[in-house]
Amino acid sequence: MNMIAGRALLAFLLIGTGLSGCALLPPFETCEATEAAVAELDQLPALDLRPKGAVSVGGGPWAGAECVDDTAGAWLSATRFYAYGGSRQEVLEYYGREARAAGWRPVHDLDMGPNGRRAVFCFESADRPSITLAFDTPEMLREVYGMEPHPASLLGVEARTWFSWSTEAELDGSRISC
User: Fold this and answer.
1) Which residue segment(s) compose the domain that 160 sits in?
2) Is 146 contained in some domain?
3) Distance between CA atoms of residues 178 and 169, nearest Å
């Protein structure tokens, strides 16, 4: 194909699809009209699981439910954030037992890895959104979430362990795999 014919074809395609209301690229998904799906995800019963003594740290951008509209598309997210006086291992044992009883299974073993460095664990269910358990450091809490990690006097717990228990789903509420 010669250069003039190629340019004419490209111009025709761009102008023709633009004028007809069609596009060559698929539309991006947005958070428009997702309020009901966000509210439903926020009520996922497994999100209420937490070890005895874990104190909910609510409010701010690190807790609650929302639709996330990113350049890669949109999805739903619900997060619970906790301060806990026990160890990471105790938290892992709790969720390994209780999440399994509620119908979620760990995707990988719940081993903390060398020197206890593994910080994110995922649980899946056949027909419900996956759930992620993530451990945070005080530095990460300050840097990413903009929160001071030791409000023990406000929470009533001597926090040694900070973690989030969260889920993500497609815009229609269907599951996203780990």
Assistant:
1) 29-169
2) yes
3) 11
Quote the tokens at residue 154.
């406000």
Tell me if 145 is assigned to some domain: yes
- CB distance 46 to 131 below 8 Å: yes
Total of domains in the chain: 1
User: At which residue do the structure tokens 């699809």 appear?
Assistant: 17
22 occurs within a structural domain: no
Exposed, middle or buried: residue 140 (CB in 10 Å: 0-12, 13-18, 19+)?
Answer: middle
17 falls within a domain: no
Cα three-residue angle 52-65-25, rounded to 5 degrees: 140
The Cα 175–Cα 129 span in angstroms is 4
Give the containing element (helix H, strand E) for 37: helix 35-42
Tell me the pLDDT tens digit for each residue of 27-60.
558 999 999 999 999 999 999 999 999 988 766 5
Alpha-carbon distance values, 41 to 32, 66, 77 (Å): 16, 9, 8
Q: What pTM was estimated for this model as a whole?
A: 0.75
